[in-house]
Write a structure and sequence with these properties.
Elements (H helix, E strand, L loop, with lengths): L2 H8 L3 H12 L17 H14 L3 H7 L12 E4 L2 H18 L1 H11 L13 H8 L5 H26 L5 E4 L4 H10 L9
Parallel strand pairs: 1-2
Length: 198
């Protein structure tokens, strides 16, 4: 059921995808973002919105406005694996060192550049343009290391902040440094204890 709509959606250029999603999900014929001169919506979000309309005949806005408020919400136990900031930063530093020292990341970027893919949007992932700059002689290995560690740490901090605000009040934090089998036992027996937080 999802195959045909998804194939059609994936064939759309991002601006066209954004226009379709805005048209089909805009209440009262509201003008699209493109018509208003604003940047198009996030392609992934636009694709999901368009897929929902095609599969159900109703836009996401309808589902939000007409959901059953009397329905009993699902009851779920929520657990969050947490690692203290210093440990997380240390892991990021070691991983970036390993990536650069192994030579595999540099080789990957070199192959992508040779294939003409260094202008692709995926190249905006953390570090790829920095490694390319190193290959072109514009950055040293140490400068790439500092940039990638800094950008990755900033991204990790944003994730931690986002998750802190998404977890329900009763969520249980677990120490992410604990062995997986011990964590599984804690959850299975209800003996979970709070992790380090922050």
């Amino acid at each position: 059921i999802r195959g045909a709509p998804r194939a059609w959606i994936e064939a759309l250029a991002p601006p066209e995808l954004s226009r379709w999603a805005a048209r089909l999900d805009a209440p009262g014929g509201r003008r699209t973002r493109a018509e208003e001169g604003r940047a198009p919506a996030d392609p992934q979000r636009a694709a999901r919105s368009l897929e929902l309309v095609l599969l159900t005949g109703r836009p996401l806005r309808w589902w939000i406005e007409h959901g059953d408020p009397e329905r009993t919400p699902l009851s779920a136990a929520v657990y969050a694996l947490d690692v203290d900031a210093a440990t997380l930063r240390g892991r990021i530093e070691r991983r970036v060192d390993d990536w650069l020292d192994s030579g595999r990341w540099v080789a990957e970027v070199r192959r992508l550049r040779e294939a003409g893919l260094h202008e692709a949007p995926a190249f905006d992932a953390i570090g790829y343009r920095d490694v390319l700059a190193m290959l072109e002689g514009d950055l040293t290995r140490d400068e790439v290391y500092e940039r990638v560690v800094g950008d990755t740490w900033a991204y990790a901090r944003r994730q931690r902040t986002w998750f802190r605000h998404q977890l329900p009040a009763g969520a249980t934090r677990l120490d992410g440094l604990e062995a997986t089998d011990q964590l599984a036992r804690r959850i299975a027996t209800g003996g979970a204890q709070r992790g380090p937080g922050r």
